[in-house]
Amino acid sequence: MNPDQSAQPAVHFRRYNDTPLTAFGGLTPSQMHQLLYDPWGPESPLRLRPEMPTDVLDQIPFLRLTEELLRIVNRDVSIKLTALGALPGKYLHELYGFGFITESSIEAGHTKLHREIDAPGLSTVHHNAVLAGLLRKVHGKLMLTKNGERLRPPARRTELMQRVFATFGEKFNWAYHDGYDAPTVGQTGWAYTLLLLLKFGAEARPLQFYADKYQQAFPFLLADLPGTAWHTPAEQLLSCYGLRVFEHFGLWFGLAVIEKYRFGREQADCLVLPTPLLGQLFELVESVEVGKV
């Protein structure tokens, strides 16, 4: 075979990987690959800013609550968990009392905080800290690990934030607190959603806007949502995406807010707006060009 002919497939694939695609909002397959599989790497089109002052880190509710949990465990040496492996009531109330992450049903008085499952945000902080290697369970007790001790000092806050955030994005199961039959919706491509928010978030846009771009990039996720007599797969994806990405992830990390759903208004029309914190934590590389609205 002619050497030039043998090189043609490689040239073709390289050209394809470097070609902006409409389905990816103008990103190339190479850029999307980085967002999916190495969002923290040097080639990712979305990057954490190198400087994270204390006043910026103070705005991240999930980080603040993680820090308080580590402080409490350090203070009490260990926490004896319930028979189901959950935080006992007195610790739940202490953590909830900081007000970093609240639950609408509790705030409205519809439910009370009796068990860890009553507050998905607190439960997620607990389990994420274990997955991050900050806490460990030993004979029914929750204890600090060496890494947990090492990352507790204020001088280590940036490293702690990076570990907490990366663990939530890559290890914690975002489907843990909901009943959707879609194990990876929202979590797949979370970095792509942040990129979209940075690009298009100068004005509030309806949830449908972001859900459409997300579905366009990851249409295979519809296969996990067979639809019902009341909702199409696309409608289910929008609802699941809105809950996991904006009502949980975006809210818990202080990156975005979504208008509260109310009867008489379509969920798809609820407005989404990134917070200033998103731009203080993340930036787009200069070469990134996302397709026009």
For the biggest sheet, the summary is:
3 strands, antiparallel
Q: Estimate the mean pLDDT confidence.
A: 92
Please list the strands of the largest sheet in the order they lie side by side: 2-4-3
Rounded to an integer, what's the Rg over CA atoms? 21 Å
Classify the beta-strand content into a percent band: 5-15%
Helix percent reads 40-55%
**Count of individual beta strands:** 8
First-last Cα distance? 46 Å
- Gross morphology is globular
Low-confidence stretches: none
Separate helix tally: 13
Summarize the helix and strand pattern as letters.
Answer: HHEHHEHHHEEHHHEHHEEHE
Structural class: mainly alpha
How many domains make up the coordinates? 2
Question: Please, could you describe this protein's structure?
Answer:
The chain folds into two domains: 3-37 and 177-284, no CATH class; 54-172, no CATH class. With 293 residues, it is mainly alpha-helical. The termini are far apart. A three-stranded antiparallel β-sheet has the order 2-4-3. It has a three-stranded antiparallel β-sheet with strand order 5-7-6. It has a two-stranded antiparallel ribbon with strand order 1-8. The chain has helices spanning 3-17, 29-37, 54-57, 61-76, 89-96, 104-107, 120-131, 146-150, 157-170, 190-200, 207-217, 233-252, 276-281; strands at 46-48, 79-80, 135-138, 141-144, 205-206, 256-258, 271-274, 282-284. Helix content is 46%, strand content 9%. It is built from 13 helices and eight strands. Helix 4 crosses helix 7. A hairpin with a 2-residue loop joins strand 3 and strand 4 (141-144).
